[in-house]
TrEMBL record:
<dbReference type="Pfam" id="PF05175">
    <property type="entry name" value="MTS"/>
</dbReference>
<dbReference type="InterPro" id="IPR013675">
    <property type="entry name" value="Mtase_sm_N"/>
</dbReference>
<dbReference type="InterPro" id="IPR002052">
    <property type="entry name" value="DNA_methylase_N6_adenine_CS"/>
</dbReference>
<keyword id="KW-0808">Transferase</keyword>
<feature type="domain" description="Methyltransferase small N-terminal">
    <location>
        <begin position="6"/>
        <end position="156"/>
    </location>
</feature>
<comment type="similarity">
    <text>Belongs to the methyltransferase superfamily. RsmC family.</text>
</comment>
<feature type="domain" description="Methyltransferase small">
    <location>
        <begin position="166"/>
        <end position="331"/>
    </location>
</feature>
<keyword id="KW-0963">Cytoplasm</keyword>
<dbReference type="InterPro" id="IPR023543">
    <property type="entry name" value="rRNA_ssu_MeTfrase_C"/>
</dbReference>
<dbReference type="Pfam" id="PF08468">
    <property type="entry name" value="MTS_N"/>
</dbReference>
<dbReference type="InterPro" id="IPR046977">
    <property type="entry name" value="RsmC/RlmG"/>
</dbReference>
<keyword id="KW-0698">rRNA processing</keyword>
<keyword id="KW-0489">Methyltransferase</keyword>
<dbReference type="InterPro" id="IPR007848">
    <property type="entry name" value="Small_mtfrase_dom"/>
</dbReference>
<dbReference type="InterPro" id="IPR029063">
    <property type="entry name" value="SAM-dependent_MTases_sf"/>
</dbReference>
<comment type="subunit">
    <text>Monomer.</text>
</comment>
<dbReference type="GO" id="GO:0008168">
    <property type="term" value="F:methyltransferase activity"/>
</dbReference>
C-alpha cells in the first residue's frame, strides 16, 4: 500500500522519467513499482528493504556507500530533524553537480522545515507540490558539499546502573538519542538473574540493554536485533566500545532470527516514524514463544497504558509486574 508521501511522488511521476534517481528511506516498497525510470533505493528499515533486496540497486546501511552519482535524490522526511540533517549530508555527496535534492513527507512530520534543512546545499528550496496532507520540496545542488563522516554525527554518553558503567554510541534517528530513557532504566534496575545461555535484546536500539546484560553476566551468548540499520550500527559500536562480544543483526520482528533463547529482553517500539503503531510489538509477542527454549522467559518494559498483558497471556504466559512507575510497567513471564 502506498503511503501518502509515495502517492505524492506518483502524482509527480514525470520528474523521475529522465536521469538516474535514488529514493531514500521510502515508507513502502510499492512506490518502486509505481514509478517508471532508473530509480535505486537506499534503506535504513530492514522491513522495507527485505521486500526489495532481490531486485537490483537497493542498499541497506547506516549511510549510503555507493560510488554512484545521481541526477536526483528524494529523502522521505524522518521523525527527527537531526536525522534528516545527517541523511542530507550523506546523500548530497552522491548527487551530480546541479542535481536535485528533494524532501517529501506528511505536513505533520516536520517536512515544512525543508527550506531550512536544505539551505546548505543551494540558493532556495522550492515547494514543487502539495497533496494528501504532504509536501514535496526541491533544492538544486549548487553549494560545495563537504565529505560525509558518520562519526561526526555520533554522540557517546555514559550510563551508570548498579555497579556497571557503560559507554553508549548513539546516532540521530536512534530511540532516546543521547540519553538513557526511563523505561529502559526501570528494566535494568529490576532484572532477575540472567541465565548463562543465549539471550536476545529485541529492538535493541543503541544496545544498552544487551551490553548491560553481558556486563552483568559475561558468560551469556548475546544476540541483539533491530529493524533499523542505524540501531544495528550503534549496537555494534556500543558492544565494541564496552568490550562485549555480540551477534548484532537486522530483522523484521523475529522473522530473520532462527535460534532459540533462554531469555528475551526488550523495550519495544510503538511508533513507526511519526505514527503510533502497536503491530510491531503485538506481532513480536505472538512470535516470541517459538523463539524461547524450555522454561524460557520474556522481560518487557512498556508504557503503562499499553494493554500488552492479555496478548502475553494468550501467546506465552500470564505476566508478572516486576516493577512500575506512573509511566511504565515492567513485565516478566516464563514458559
Amino acid at each position: 500500500m502506498l503511503s501518502n508521501p509515495s502517492q505524492l511522488l506518483v502524482r509527480n511521476a514525470h520528474l523521475f522519467e529522465q536521469g538516474q534517481w535514488l529514493l531514500a528511506n521510502a515508507e513502502d516498497a510499492q512506490v518502486f513499482s509505481e514509478l517508471d525510470g532508473d530509480i535505486d533505493g537506499f534503506h535504513q528499515n530492514w522491513q522495507i528493504y527485505s521486500q526489495l533486496k532481490t531486485q537490483n540497486n537497493h542498499e541497506f546501511a547506516v549511510a549510503l556507500a555507493s560510488e554512484k552519482r545521481y541526477d536526483g535524490i528524494v529523502l522521505y522526511m524522518p521523525k527527527a530533524k537531526e536525522h534528516a540533517a545527517m541523511l542530507l549530508a550523506n546523500l548530497a555527496c552522491h548527487l551530480k553537480p546541479g542535481g536535485c535534492l528533494m524532501l517529501v513527507g506528511e505536513n505533520n512530520s516536520g517536512v515544512k522545515s525543508a527550506p531550512k534543512l536544505l539551505a546548505d546545499y543551494g540558493h532556495k528550496a522550492v515547494k514543487l507540490d502539495a497533496a494528501r496532507h504532504c509536501s514535496l520540496f526541491n533544492m538544486v545542488l549548487s553549494a560545495e558539499v563537504k565529505p560525509f563522516n558518520l562519526d561526526q554525527w555520533a554522540k557517546e554518553f555514559e550510563v551508570n546502573i548498579a555497579e556497571h558503567n557503560l559507554r553508549i554510541y548513539s546516532l540521530p534517528g536512534i530511540f532516546s538519542h543521547k540519553s538513557l530513557d526511563d523505561g529502559t532504566k526501570l528494566l535494568l534496575e529490576n532484572l532477575k538473574p540472567i541465565p548463562t545461555a543465549p539471550v536476545l535484546d529485541f529492538a535493541c536500539g543503541a544496545g544498552i540493554i544487551g551490553v548491560y546484560l553481558a556486563k552483568k553476566n559475561p558468560a551469556i551468548q548475546l544476540t541483539m536485533s533491530d529493524v533499523s540499520a542505524i540501531a544495528v550500527h550503534c549496537a555494534g559500536r556500543t558492544a565494541e566500545i564496552n568490550g562485549v562480544t555480540a551477534d548484532v543483526l537486522a530483522s523484521d520482528g523475529l522473522k530473520d532470527i532462527t535460534r532459540k533463547f533462554a531469555a528475551i529482553y526488550t523495550n519495544p517500539p510503538f511508533h513507526t516514524g511519526t505514527h503510533t503503531d502497536y503491530s510491531i510489538t503485538e506481532q513480536f509477542l505472538r512470535d516470541a514463544n517459538a523463539h524461547l527454549g524450555v522454561n524460557g522467559s520474556l522481560t518487557l518494559v512498556a508504557n503503562a497504558f499499553l494493554d500488552y498483558p492479555p496478548i502475553m497471556e494468550k501467546h506465552l504466559a500470564a505476566p508478572l509486574v516486576m516493577a512500575h512507575t506512573t509511566r511504565f510497567k515492567l513485565y516478566h513471564c516464563q514458559k
